[in-house]
From TrEMBL:
Taxonomic source organism: Psophocarpus tetragonolobus
ATP-binding found in the keyword field: no
UniProt family annotation: Belongs to the 'GDSL' lipolytic enzyme family.
Protein name: Uncharacterized protein
Keyword Hydrolase: yes
Keywords: Glycoprotein, Hydrolase, Signal
UniProt xrefs under InterPro entries: GDSL, SGNH_hydro_sf, SGNH_plant_lipase-like
GO molecular function per UniProt: hydrolase activity, acting on ester bonds
Signal sequence coordinates: 1-25
CDD domains found in the cross-reference section: SGNH_plant_lipase_like
PANTHER family: GDSL ESTERASE_LIPASE ENOD8, ZINC FINGER FYVE DOMAIN CONTAINING PROTEIN
Amino acid sequence: MSHTKLVPSLLLLSIAATILSPVIAQQQCHFPAIINFGASNADTGGLAASFRPPKPPNGMTYFHRPAGRFSDGRIMLDFMAQSFGLPFLSPYLDSLGTNFSHGANFATFGSTIRPPPSIAKQLLSPFYLEVQYWQFERFKPTSQFIRNQGGVFATLMPKEEYFSEALYTFDIGQNDLTAGFFVNNNPQQVKDSIPDIIKTFTSNLKNIYNMGARSFWIHNTGPIGCLPLILSKFLSAEKDSYGCAKVYNEVAQYFNQNLKEAITQLRKDLPLAAITYVDIYTPKYSLFSNPKKYGFELPLVACCGYGGPYNFSISVGCGGTIKIHGTDTVVGSCDKPSVRVIWDGTHYTEAANKVVFDQISSGAFTDPPIPLNMACKR
């Protein structure tokens, strides 16, 4: 074949690929703000502002002080903000030095999708998803009233158009499952509750959509059967080849399957929305199944904790005080958080959060398979 015939053929193939591939055809999105709903994996200080803040050594790696996050450093939401060139997201509930000009974070430690059952209220946050929606419902008009008033606080509020241009992110649902396990529900009973949990989630998402949200980035839930929280509670549970509790991970996978199916339906119900389903389960599980690949060790053992084979106790958390041989001792960090996966028995280290964020933001684990910076409606 001559070069003159080959070049037009290649050009046609290139044009066809550009038309057929949404990733190639799209341009990067401009997200001037992030509005987040969720639980502790996405909490940047909501619980700390409302109740009791995390103690040192939380925050030691990046912030060098407790910064409202349940980690030694940054969480995935922080890496997301930095990737867009935005400041870290201020908690809606924090009244001290908050700046909402580029969004707000409604997530708190212990938040659930459904209202927490009375038997578990002491373990969970009162700011469940519908309450977070109510807060957003107030935040949108009130922020614009303050902005229109002018003065020193006006610049701390988002511009009106940001509400339709923002990326709306969700990381919630894990506590609905773990709370079920901890109030003596067996795994099958927790599985049976999942359709209603997902129904509640979609109802709230539709309400947020009706407030003007258009671009959604929704995390599924991680492998809860690999967490010291679960492993130390259910020591006799059957383990997989990597030491994770099989049945508890199967419940998480069932939740994720139901969530993905619900998002497929939401795309039909909300045709003006761009809804990205984000699989965080797979990259998180890879940290336990192949830790050496990412430079990690002892993946099932908490870095900041005390007691038992998983260095975790439900009775004393990271930064808490415990008596050892009659002496008050602070529960501190391991020597190198950067080579550990789990920070405090429930949450991940900054290093692990960064590995997972890099993978999901590439689009390798999303449906549709698009990178984070293209997750908007065209």
